[in-house]
Specification:
Length: about 475
């Protein structure tokens, strides 16, 4: 590239970066707020990169990992990297984490087009020929980035040393593309690379492999968007007595844009599509409540300035309807999937009684009922607390105490009793074991998970188990 072309390139970079910073500054403020709310740490990620001529500079990026991530793992990011934050996942997918590099372009550390800035650690492994890449100013978009945007997908799932794999399998062809660019760069080729790079970034967000791998999550997202629209329209119909006039329709369309733009992002942030619908628990429902509530608050705030005549009561009704629709649909789908999985199992079930109706007994019941591979069917619960008799836990009735084991066993054909040590004292455990011995029922003692994990609790559990077995 001639001096004149280099000067034109710098003028283009400076002008473009100045305009870009002004245009995206509101978005920066929004993203900065989301990053700070999501996790502890700075907004920007600053790390040394190799500069033109072999020096170094500090790059600007939005932080997408937990604070101190590079001190607790590899220099490179891999698929499903646990260090990436919830907001970071979205920023990386949309490439918005790269926006602050406009500051590097403005300061002259980078250009819009050039080889991607490398970690100085890896430049130590460059050959003399490969070091020619450092003669060009690093760029926000480069030929290697355009042609190799799926770099992270090239790592095998069982890769033990990703840095070594990067040095031997990814870096050499990457440097070949960069060397070809450096040796043939002109201002016009830069403009072509910039245009094709922006197009590549847009197209790369929608990959066939991505859709194949996340098709069920995407289907759930599309289904939720439909429920969001239905809920909002239903809230308006309820508020205005099922009659919508021209005044209402004038802002419904605009408000729906807010609904579709804001709510899915909040749902993704709260991880609703990483949760398994088949096992819907209290924490999953809590995440649904948080996602619906926060997105409703954001809608109220957003429409306050753009749609000042919008009825706030509609959002309250919409909040209630959407909670029912999202929570109910997930619960029903989970029940259908669990039932279908159980119907696929073959062979007779072993009917069991669960002794204990506290946290331990509830965990045993839930495990047996939700596990499609379980051959044990709980038909009743026994407990020493009379006020619990007759209650239902996961649809299974508390039938009585230890003296009622005989009647429950003869009525329901019970073959085994599972005793929750977490819920019963040793005296009650011995009574149940004695009753099982007299009736010829198999009795198994189930310690609490906390007792199994805590070494200090190991001996007491073992003593109870041995003394109870001695009674049998």
């Amino acid at each position: 590239m001639t001096k004149g072309q280099a000067a034109a390139k710098r003028i283009f970079d400076f002008t473009g970066a100045s305009v870009g910073i002004i245009m995206v500054s509101p978005l920066w403020l929004l993203l900065a707020g989301l990053i700070k709310l999501d996790s502890h740490g700075p907004v920007f990620f600053r790390q040394e990169r190799a500069a033109v001529g072999g020096g170094t500079f500090r790059i600007f990026k939005f932080r997408t990992m937990v604070a101190g991530a590079y001190r607790s793992g590899a220099r490179l990011t891999v698929r499903r990297d646990p260090r990436i934050t919830n907001v970071g996942q979205i920023l990386r997918w949309t490439k918005l984490d790269e926006l602050p590099q406009l500051l590097n372009v403005f300061l002259g550390d980078m250009s819009f087009v050039g080889p991607r800035p490398e970690d100085p650690y890896f430049t130590n492994f460059y050959t003399a020929e490969q070091r020619e890449v450092l003669a060009a100013k690093p760029g926000v978009i480069g030929p290697s980035q355009v042609e190799g945007r799926d770099e992270i997908e090239k790592y095998p799932d069982d890769c033990e040393n990703i840095e070594e794999f990067y040095l031997h399998h990814i870096l050499p062809p990457k440097l070949e593309r960069d060397l070809h660019y450096v040796r043939h760069a002109t201002f016009l080729t830069d403009l072509r690379v910039l245009a094709s790079g922006l197009l590549s970034i847009l197209c790369s967000q929608f990959k066939a492999r991505f859709f194949a791998r996340t098709r069920y999550r995407l289907a759930a997202l599309v289904g939720d968007i439909v429920l969001m629209v239905v809920s909002y329209l239903g809230a308006n119909l309820i508020k205005f007595d099922w009659r919508l006039g021209p005044d209402e329709w004038s802002y419904i369309g605009k408000a729906l844009i807010w609904v579709v733009a804001v709510r899915p992002l909040v749902f993704v942030y709260y991880g609703l599509y990483q949760r398994t619908t088949r096992w819907m628990g209290r924490r999953d429902m809590a995440a649904v409540v948080k996602a619906v509530s926060v997105s409703s608050a954001l809608l109220v705030a957003g429409t306050y300035f753009s749609l000042q005549h919008h009825s706030r009561a509609v959002f309250v009704i919409d909040w209630i309807l959407l909670l029912c629709l999202i929570g109910g649909s997930r619960y029903m789908l989970g029940s259908i999937l669990s039932g279908a999985a159980r119907r696929e199992e073959k062979g007779p079930f072993v009917k069991v009684l669960v002794a204990g109706s506290g946290h331990g007994g509830e965990a045993i019941l839930r495990s047996l009922l939700e596990d499609p591979g379980s051959l044990f069917m709980p038909v009743g619960i026994i407990d020493h607390e009379p006020h619990r008799w007759g209650a239902l836990i996961h649809g299974v009735r508390v039938m009585g105490g230890a003296t009622d084991i005989a009647m429950a066993a003869s009525t329901h054909g019970v073959e085994m009793v599972l005793v929750s040590l977490a819920d019963l004292d040793p005296v009650m455990v011995r009574e149940i074991v004695e009753a099982c011995r007299r009736l010829g029922l198999e009795c198994r003692l189930v310690p609490a998970l906390s007792d199994l994990l805590a070494q200090d609790a190991g001996e007491p559990v073992k003593r109870i188990f041995l003394s109870s077995q001695a009674g049998v």
